[in-house]
Amino acid sequence: MLALALATNLLLAAPPAPTCEVAGTIHYQDPVMIVVPHGKPFVAQLDDVATHVRFDAQAKITIAAEGPIAFSATVAKRQLLTSVSKLLPLIDGVLSIGPGMVLEVRRVKGASADVMVFDEAGLTLGPVPVSCADLTLAQPASRNEPVAVAVDAQVFARSGRGALRAGPGTGVTLPFEADGVATFERLGADHGWTQVRSRWTDGSQLTGWMKRALSERPPETLDQITSDASACDRGYTGYYGPAMLHAGALIYDAPERGHAWGTARVDIEVKVFGDRGMVELTTLPGLHAARGECSFPAYAHAEDLTYPAKP
Fold this sequence. Notes:
This protein is mainly beta. It is built from one helix and 27 strands. A hairpin with a 3-residue loop joins strand 8 and strand 9 (95-97). Helices cover 4% and strands 44% of the residues. The strands form six sheets. A seven-stranded antiparallel β-sheet has the order 8-9-19-18-17-14-20, with no helix packed on it. The protein has one helix spanning 2-12, and strands spanning 20-26, 32-34, 42-44, 49-55, 61-65, 72-75, 83-84, 88-91, 95-97, 102-109, 112-118, 123-131, 135-136, 154-157, 160-167, 170-178, 182-190, 193-199, 205-210, 214-215, 240-245, 250-252, 260-263, 268-273, 278-281, 299-301, 305-306. 30% of the residues are buried. It folds into four domains: 15-75, no CATH class; 83-136, no CATH class; 151-219; 222-306.
């Protein structure tokens, strides 16, 4: 019976919670809470302190100082940044990061951590999994600059959230967020999807397919027109102005249950009514309304268009 009870207890025992442990020197850190056993903790900043850092499953951070003074401390979530010591492929064919990227641990799963990846231009990628063994506390020794892109290959995305796919609508998805206008190198297009790439001086590289509003000119240089006037005098009071119709976008003859009658072969600058759902295209290259008519039936999905950034 005793043996059976012991075996049952072993089976029922919860597995140890995953942790991610990183050893290194903290050169400068936002305030940490120094643990005082049986006393009141206090706040201090660390600089050039050898430490052993532990991230628990929810990314709670504890620090064991290993320098001249031994002590323990806790750090608020998202206040201790890490990096990697070498160029590391994270998502095959989509993302590789080098030691110039800054990482933030969000969650620990087994022997790996889900991290957010930051560059100095305001682009945030992730979360993506990184082996705990590849994390380091070392901070980048020099600025990690985006590699310049030829002007005729540049495409731009407005600030906000988006996602890259490994293929045009297929494969792994990598979320990203741009703080300001993000610049990418355009590699190709396929049925409304655009293949883009970003590279950095530390060897980091991002390559993927995006079905997100892209423009061949910086959005802030496009003229914003918000007018309630139109050639057809519809009395429309929403958005009326320029937009970029993506290559591969279908053009329909009606806003609801319409039939596709055309396909954009390249990115086309147009004028539109509306910015949600199905929108009306009021200009198309090579097409004009018939005599006596103020428009022709041309509608497209708003997601197939790039709109200028709002002022």
